[in-house]
Design a protein that fits this description.
By secondary structure, the chain is an alpha/beta fold. It has twelve helices and ten strands. The protein has a single domain, classed as TIM Barrel (Alpha-Beta Barrel). Helix 3 runs parallel beside helix 4 and helix 4 packs parallel to helix 5.
């Protein structure tokens, strides 16, 4: 068993955000998921000890802040979640660190809260649950839009990573799943929604303006490693310039500005493909607790047929470098 593993997609809930996770478990499993989400210092630590996890970087469950359509209410919820998380981390900073929840409904306010969390609370970055509903709950707002450039400048200046975590599309944007609700959530819709958001960021020119920005995608990259060649080379005999502002091929941003985690995708073939596409230096172990099991993640990873040098990088040292945990 590899000791010293670090996980960075590891969630908790406040009492008031608990209900956001209820759709992701059948009724008979809800009491267990609820107890997992509310626990930080007890069962979570025991499982970490049993399976060689030294540290979890903790973040609020989804969609939480991103689904609060009033800017003031979203801002207050994010601040309360971050203050609570800071208290929990302070009890065991050797085992837990924090990723900030941010009310992206207010880009300038989100930048200020990220700065507060990093400079005052000692957080290591941010985790945001996809698009935000701002004033109109029926309109998804994505972060490639121009109003977010000052936020991204602030994140780059703070030199902390931004974890782009999934959420489901809004009902009016999910008609492809009508009659097939099983496709929502982690089965498919989470990955598709997040991959499109990531591609929007790449194509917007964001990383031309802010080349040091680092974005993290979970679940072994939300399907993107397998698709990056085709995204850049579709119908290659037709010589047309790309219809987006970014100056490079999108795979170049993927390889320079993105990191992937193993959260909730415990498959060696998929891990090897990700290593071949983006390199072992940009992949990090995670479990996706409490929605996935620590034992499932750790037992698979400890035995995955990769080199021991890559196991050490992915399991531990990449996270230490990215989050400045030295």
């Amino acid at each position: 068993m590899m000791q010293g593993k670090i996980g960075l997609e590891e969630h908790f809930a406040l009492e008031e955000t608990l209900g956001d996770s209820k759709p992701f478990a059948p009724a008979e499993y809800w009491p267990e998921l609820e107890s997992r989400l509310l626990d930080i210092q007890d069962k979570r630590l025991r499982l970490m000890d049993e399976h060689g996890m030294e540290m979890m970087l903790l973040s609020l469950n989804a969609p939480a802040v991103q689904a609060v359509p009033g800017t003031a209410a979203a801002t207050e919820l994010a601040r309360r979640a971050n203050d609570y998380l800071a208290e929990q981390v302070a009890r065991r900073p050797d085992r837990f660190q924090g990723l900030a929840a941010l009310a992206m409904q207010d880009p300038d306010g989100a930048a200020r809260e990220l700065e507060r969390c990093v400079r005052e609370l000692g957080f290591r970055g941010a985790l945001v649950n996809g698009f935000s509903q701002v004033e109109n709950p029926d309109v998804p707002v994505y972060y490639d839009l121009p109003q977010y450039r000052p936020f991204w400048a602030a994140a780059e200046a703070l030199d902390v990573p931004f974890y782009l975590h999934p959420r489901n599309p809004l009902p009016q944007d999910a008609r492809i799943y009508d009659g097939h609700p099983w496709l929502l959530g982690p089965t498919w819709a989470f990955g598709q929604e997040t991959a499109v958001h990531a591609l929007r960021l790449m194509a917007s020119g964001l990383f031309d303006s802010h080349p040091r920005l680092q974005v993290i995608l979970g679940h072994m990259g939300e399907g993107l490693p397998y698709s990056m060649w085709r995204i850049d080379n579709r119908n290659a005999w037709i010589k047309t310039p790309p219809r987006y502002p970014a100056k490079k091929k999108l795979v170049e941003y993927f390889n320079a500005n993105f990191h992937l985690t193993t959260s909730g995708n415990f498959r060696t073939q998929t891990l090897i493909d990700a290593i071949l596409e983006i390199g072992a230096d940009r992949i990090l172990f995670s479990t996706d607790w409490p929605f996935e099991n620590v034992d499932h993640a750790a037992i698979w990873f400890d035995a995955a047929t990769i080199s021991e040098a890559d196991r050490l990088k992915i399991g531990r040292t990449n996270a230490m470098k990215l989050f400045n945990l030295e």
